[in-house]
Input
Amino acid sequence: MHGPHFIEANGAKIPAVGFGTWQLRAGACVRAVDAALGAGYRHIDTARMYGNEREVGEAIRASSVSREEVFVTTKVWREDIGAGALERSAEASVRDIGIGPVDLLLIHWPNAAIPLRASIGALCNARRQGLARHIGVSNFPVALLEEALGLATEPLVANQCEYHPRLDQNAVIAACRRHGLAFVSYSPLGKGDIVNAAAVRAIADRLGRAPAQVVLRWHIQQPGVAAIPRSGSPAHIAENFGLFDFSLSADDMAAISALARKDGRLVDMGWARFDS
Ligand SMILES: NC(=O)c1ccc[n+]([C@@H]2O[C@H](COP(=O)([O-])OP(=O)(O)OC[C@H]3O[C@@H](n4cnc5c(N)ncnc54)[C@H](OP(=O)(O)O)[C@@H]3O)[C@@H](O)[C@H]2O)c1
Output
């Protein structure tokens, strides 16, 4: 009844569980991506800013998994989202990853100093130039997302934002659904902290599951939501992909959602307004 699942989003088919690589560098990154591919992940998340695109590409090229099976996302840093600069950043990413066009190219963060029209124009241009199969955004609140959608001449397929049980993201998720985008949860484990929440532990104990599995299952059981947990530990990497042979009841889903609180956001660089 279960199996790895995908999110269909404006023409893209995105594996619902991806592997996050922020802070994984050099050999540790190669080993972690290799372990993730071995455990079954077919979606890897990197960014120009992470400084590990070469290592992500190296691990994919060395693996026995074919290029076509892996969905690779990278992101353009917010200083580089002007016309021309964005395309150059995407070219550098494609060169460094070394597996051909990326599957998804995201604007990493909005930048009020650069007109959105120029950024979205350049993002669409990068797709037309064949640097990316699909394009999208990250850290875009609802109003900015809708403005971006109004400017885009190519489909936007994803908005990657912070999301975990401590943070209510219903408004952004609803906007993504309305417009056919995937919502990709970053810091899906609350940077690791949420596995200690008593409500999560109680459900995990009852189901005979790891707390991280319960939280990640909560993510992917929400329509249109994908999650990209990060780990440097082979045991956690495997554990976090073991989500396709159980499900959470509506009551358990609600109990986990009830952990949301007003100060639940962990990542706020002040670059986006989150109240829209
Ligand atoms: N677009 C953006 O602006 C943005 C911002 C932040 C993150 N991201 C992306 O999202 C990815 C994930 O977010 P994140 O790295 O912030 O945090 P996260 O995935 O929520 O949490 C990672 C932490 O959880 C721990 N962990 C992982 N699996 C575990 C398990 N099964 N049991 C217990 N602890 C576990 C890890 O430790 P171990 O290594 O010891 O397992 C690590 O310390 C990033 O790597 C990056 O790709 C994007």
Remarks:
- The beta strands are 6-9, 12-15, 19-20, 43-45, 71-76, 102-107, 132-138, 156-162, 182-186, 225-227.
- Residues 18 and 228 are 4 Å apart (CA to CA).
- The two ends are 38 Å apart (CA to CA).
